[in-house]
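As a warm-up, study this chain.
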Amino acid sequence: MTRLEGPLADPRPGLWIAPRLARAGTVSGAVPQGYAAYARIFHPIRAQLLNWQEDGPVTIESRSLRWEELAQMRGTVAHPLMQWPAILAGYRNPVWNEPGWHYEDPLVGALPARTLADVVTLLALHTSTPDRCLAGLWDGWGWVAAPADPAPRLELPARNYLLFAGELAVFSEVGWQERNGWDPLQSPNLLWPADAAWFLASEVDSDSTLVGGSAELIRNLQQGGTFEAVEVPLDGDVTRIGDVLNEAPD
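Now compare it with the structure written out below.
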């Protein structure tokens, strides 16, 4: 089992990022410009079939669901810039078409552990430095331990991050969060290898993760099989108003 080093006393390994960021709310507002292609990884949905009884709901069936699947079920449009509230709304397919089904919101600000493990396993094939990666953790999470208070921050537009270093394989190990003093649901908000061959960002308020890298990497992410990823334009709006193909819920 490996451990992360940090918080690092020197944030300089991340100083290259800020000059390459563009307008907040776009793909390039979270992932630096300059990569050949970009992808959006949708955080998975948990669908539960519930039977409501006097003492509360009983789960009859539970399964993972892709955003594209839910959009098809709800009659909304699946596309690279779709947004969770809009595809869930299902204006053309009323809720009564799915009696008893409940959809848990995707995890916000972090990739689920199992998805992260699958993603980093693929990312490791696209860097010459899988043994030396940098991870950024937003310093505003309430669980961040007090000893991190004096650690210097990597300052990016609108957010500051604590930096950690270690092997990329750390993030595919079961229980790595607990061993490193992280919240068990948390993943790095920023992640990149020392050679900067790619860059991953799980924005604090976002229910999807963005990756910039080579065209081959982005194709491989889309073909990953265990997670849902699509290519997105660099200037794509990934905020709630960026979904112009689905009617926004009230």
